[in-house]
Each structure stands twice: as C-alpha cells, then as structure tokens.
C-alpha cells in the first residue's frame, strides 16, 4: 500500500540508518534469488534469514507487523519483498533529507491517521463481495472522467460515480472516504482514492481485468560488468608485447627454467535483459511518484532519490544522462517561484535518453 505502508512502521524505519545503498542492493538480490517460484513473495522465515544475514534485527512482533503491511492477497501469509525493499529505500531517503525539506514536510502531513485506519475498517464492513465490487471498472470510469490527465477529479464528480455504484455505502462513510482521499478541499486524488478502496476490498472481490502478478515470469538478472562502448568492439585479438631482459650466461648442461604462461580465461558477460531493466526502471519511476505529495520535487531531492534507486536496482544510468534529463524537466513553480522538477516528465526524459543512448 502506498502512503501508510511507507512511513507508518516505526520498527522498519529504525533499521534504515544502518543500511547503506550497497547493502540494500545485496538484500534485494538475495531476496530475488530466494524467490524460486518467481511470484514476488517470500515466506516470513526466508525473509527473516536474509535480514539476519545483513544484520537487520527484527523481533517476532516486528515481523508480524511486516506481514500485515506487505502481505499478498494471492498468497496468504507470504510477504511482498519488492514492496518491503522499496519501503526501506523511501524511508532511508526521507530520513536523510534536511528537516526543512519541502518534500519531508509534505510526507509528514500525509502520514496515515487514525481516521484513515478507521475508514478502512468501515469500508471493509460495507463493501460488497463478488461481481458487485469491480474496482477495475470503477477505476476506468474515474480515469475516463479525468479530462486533464492529472489524476484529479472534483468531489461532485466522484460523488456522482460513487452514487451510481451498488455498494450501499452510508453517507458518513462516503464523506469520510472523500475526505481521506482529497487532494485539496474541493478535489480528490484518484490514486489515493483507489489505494483506500484496494486496501479495504474483500478477498473474494471480482476483477474484470486479467491482473499481472508482481514478479511473475521474473528471471533474476546477474550483476552486469561495465562494458566497452559499442564502437569499441573487441575481436579477441591481443597484442604480444615482448620485453627483452638481460639474462645471465647459462652453464653447460643447465636448462632454462620454463615459466608457464598464464592466460586469462575469457569472461562471458551475461546477456542484457531489456525487460528486466525496463521493469526495474518502472519501479524507480513509481517510487519517485509515490514519494512526492504533488508530483514535483526540487533538483536536489529528485537527484538524491534517483541516484539511490539507480544503484540499488543496478540500472547503471550514467550521470550525464541523469543531469540532462533533470535539466530538461525543470519548470517554475507558480506559487513559490522556485525551479522544481516535474517527476513524470523527468521519468519520461530519462527513459528516452537511455533508450536512445543504448539503442534499447
């Protein structure tokens, strides 16, 4: 889950300062290796062993909290490790931001409240099961009404759509739902509204679309070694450099000591997995969006976040491409009159720059 899952758990945040980017990368690789079924989940015992390996102490009570927050509805009792690692990354980056950071202040305001927790419990009581609750269809209706493509609707628009559903939500529950998902006093954030409904939906609710499971058909990508640019292809030829050395005269009958020449075995570099890279890039893009309150960040904030994800997900995006995309995404905030980065524009520019540079 999006916002509350990122910052509500104190226990997970306590472990964040002890983890650097390299250890988080190793932790993610270990979890993907342990995920033999490629279904994106691990048993809590497996997760506990990996955390112990990286010296992250988690008590049974804390592990229970993690199970509740990152459980997978498809596999009861299993933990979505990708979401857990992303939570650690976001929490770590938030903890390292200065106290007066605009982004940090926005996140603190957006923390899950008791009202939100109570709302999810109330929605769980009233939302129907089976085909009467089709959240995929409900989401499509909302986005069809979003003419500006900014994931925001007015409250009357959302009220109209809710009233046309056969869910039977009481008026006070509907008002509370709109209040917890509002973007401003008169507007509603579609992602936040859907997040609340997804967290409250019954387990046997209906889906009109074929859902794609996280981690399905996933094949772990080995760490890629830096490669020479395409125009510097190596044909396997090695020049032999002969160094003449003065040798002492050899006595009669004495044999030269023949030193065995050591040859380096050719290193077979793993084949680049384009789909895996695209999936990891999308994970970074989604994390940047969820870390922001309004879809914008300052240059330093987004530089800090993207550099961390670039390292942990082993994307190997060069610094010059990162800086180029940042400069192309700068806009002037009409309220603060400061230059900020539009995150969606930055994600698009960065992906296109990588595709063109690497001919993906």
TrEMBL record:
Every EF-hand domain range: 22-57
Gene3D superfamilies in the record: EF-hand
Region (Disordered): 201-233
Region forming the signal peptide: none
MF terms in GO: calcium ion binding
Matching InterPro entries: DUF5580, EF-hand-dom_pair, EF_hand_dom
Protein name from the UniProt record: EF-hand domain-containing protein
Regions that span the bilayer: none
Entry superkingdom: Eukaryota
